[in-house]
Design brief:
The chain has 11 helices and 15 strands. The chain is of the alpha/beta class. It folds into 2 domains: about 80 residues, Fe-S cluster assembly (FSCA) (GMP Synthetase, Chain A, domain 3, 2-Layer Sandwich); about 260 residues, 3-Layer(aba) Sandwich (Rossmann fold). The protein has an 8-stranded mixed β-sheet with strand order 8-9-5-10-4-11-12-15, with helices on both faces. The chain has a 3-stranded mixed β-sheet with strand order 1-2-3. Strands 6-7 form a two-stranded antiparallel ribbon. Helix 2 links the parallel strand 2 and strand 3. Helix 3 crosses helix 11, helix 5 runs parallel beside helix 6 and helix 7 packs parallel to helix 8. It is elongated and about 75 Å long. The termini are far apart.
């Protein structure tokens, strides 16, 4: 039998975040829910630049809970904060090779193994789909794999080969309407990359300044985990429009993700949001198993005063799609993961546009 708080949470799962098909409980926004003597008390914490969102959520929660048996009074407290503003100064000048790239988005994580590259390739393909649907066909998205020691983007995007050099510029390869550059195209895939910091710095700088990216709406940069040479070189070479942090639900991952995100604050790059990967495993009946715990992504976003963008479930199809070189937004567009990636990508386009103003 459900206790009082579980009854409230079950009802709150019918309240979707404005503009999303995901509910406020799944997004980790409900911090407390109590039913005592007929009074339902709920605490919600969220970060949004849209001032209408807290009001809409509060109103919908009040309406939903007031319909429950035994509820005579509803008290909803919404702790709403705005995302950090775009810094006015302190970023480097844009290299000539990137002069026609409208937005540059870094995808980062504090630690490895959280699925950062999976997020990067699916966001790239989701962006490409959204641009095509909006009447902007052609290759308008770029994906730069800066994970020097473990370049996995070529496999996940199903592309291989040796880039050509035309007029001193490297021509990126293409797959799924995305321009791609990776160290994986330049080294033997069976050989380890035994590079020290100076060589890593040079490789990252070359990818940013000597690749013919052309005209792009968005360039996604898949960073290696941590806060090492690649991250620092990137922040010193190009003016990033923003960064997205990828974590998993457990505290061991979210704590490291928080520390990694602090690097962007120090180099004046706005953190646009947090994506939580491997959030839950859902069986055929719809029951969710929280294998890695819960709440890490939402807590990380709250600590960074930024948006919690979404939760990606554990799905075997997601792993298989990466191995097959056809990201899940293309290979299984009706899957839960694909739908979340598309929702997140659409929201990120709005955030990127706002950050550019």
């Amino acid at each position: 039998m459900q206790d009082a708080s579980d009854i409230l949470l079950t009802a709150l799962k019918t309240v979707n975040y404005p503009g999303y098909s995901r509910d406020i409980v799944s997004f980790g926004l409900v911090r407390a829910a109590e039913l005592k003597d007929g009074k339902a008390s709920v605490v919600i914490a969220l970060t949004s630049a849209d001032e209408s969102v807290p009001t809409k959520i509060k109103s919908e929660v009040e309406k939903t809970l007031s319909l429950l048996d035994g509820v005579k009074e509803v008290a909803v407290f919404v702790d709403a904060t705005k995302p950090q503003a775009k810094p006015e100064a302190g970023q480097p000048a844009r290299p000539e090779a990137l002069k026609n790239v409208k937005a540059i988005l870094a995808v980062a994580s504090g630690k490895g193994g959280v699925g950062k590259s999976t997020v990067a390739v699916n966001l790239a393909c989701a962006f490409a789909q959204l641009f095509e649907k909006a009447g902007r066909p052609g290759v308008s998205v770029g994906l730069l794999d800066c994970d020097i020691y473990g370049p996995s983007v070529p496999l996940m995007m199903g592309v291989s080969g040796q880039p050509e050099i035309v007029d001193t510029l490297i021509e990126p390869l293409q797959s799924h309407n995305v321009k791609i550059m990776s160290l994986g195209f330049l080294v033997d895939e069976n050989s380890p990359v035994l590079w020290r910091g100076a060589m890593v710095n040079k490789a990252v700088q070359q990818f940013l300044t000597q690749v013919n990216w052309g005209a792009l709406e968005v360039l996604i940069i898949d960073l290696p985990p941590g806060t090492g040479d690649a991250q620092i070189t990137l922040s010193q070479t190009v003016p990033l429009t923003g960064a997205v942090i990828v974590t998993t639900p457990q505290q061991a991952a979210s704590d490291v993700a928080l520390r990694g995100a602090r690097l962007f604050e120090k180099v004046n790059v706005p953190v646009l949001g947090v994506i939580e990967n491997m959030s839950y495993l859902e069986d055929t009946s719809g029951k969710r198993d929280l294998i890695f715990g819960e709440g890490g992504g939402a807590q990380t976003a709250h600590s960074l005063n930024t948006e919690f963008l979404g939760q990606i479930p554990l799905e075997s199809a997601l792993r298989q799609a990466g191995d097959d070189g056809k990201p899940i937004v293309l290979g299984a567009p009706q899957s839960t993961s694909a739908q979340v990636f598309l929702e997140v990508a659409e929201h990120l386009l709005h955030l990127l546009a706002r950050a550019q103003k």
